[in-house]
């Protein structure tokens, strides 16, 4: 059975410690994500990669954040509105 992250621990996904280990902008840039691309972040959680991806694809691109957890998607929606 696949692992399902417990949404009650979602703050771990956006922690400074995780950001120190994983650089989402660096990883996405290395993967070639740039202006005009369309991509799906499957299992997006709170948007650790979704938001940086949306900034890299700019206005001409599109990023879909997909998750089975309504709580995670709600958290992502709050973050997107703040940006």
The CATH topology comes to Rossmann fold
Distance between the termini: 35 Å
- List the domain count as a whole number: 1
So how many helices? Answer: 4
- By CATH reckoning, the class would read Alpha Beta
Shape: globular
Rounded Rg: 13 Å
Tell me the strand percentage band.
5-15%
Characterization of the model:
The chain has helices spanning 16-21, 24-30, 50-57, 70-82; strands spanning 38-42, 62-66. It has 83 residues and is α+β, with helices and mostly antiparallel strands. It has one domain: Vaccinia Virus protein VP39 (Rossmann fold). α3 (50-57) links the parallel β1 (38-42) and β2. The chain is globular and about 35 Å long. The mean pLDDT is 94.
């Amino acid at each position: 059975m696949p692992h399902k992250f417990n949404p009650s621990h979602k703050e771990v996904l956006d922690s400074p410690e995780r950001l120190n280990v994983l650089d989402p902008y660096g990883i996405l840039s290395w993967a070639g994500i740039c202006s005009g691309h369309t991509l799906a972040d499957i299992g997006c959680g709170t948007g650790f990669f979704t938001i940086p991806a949306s900034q890299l694809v700019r206005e001409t691109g599109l990023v879909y954040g997909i998750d089975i957890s309504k709580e995670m998607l709600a958290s992502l929606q709050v973050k997107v509105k703040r940006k």
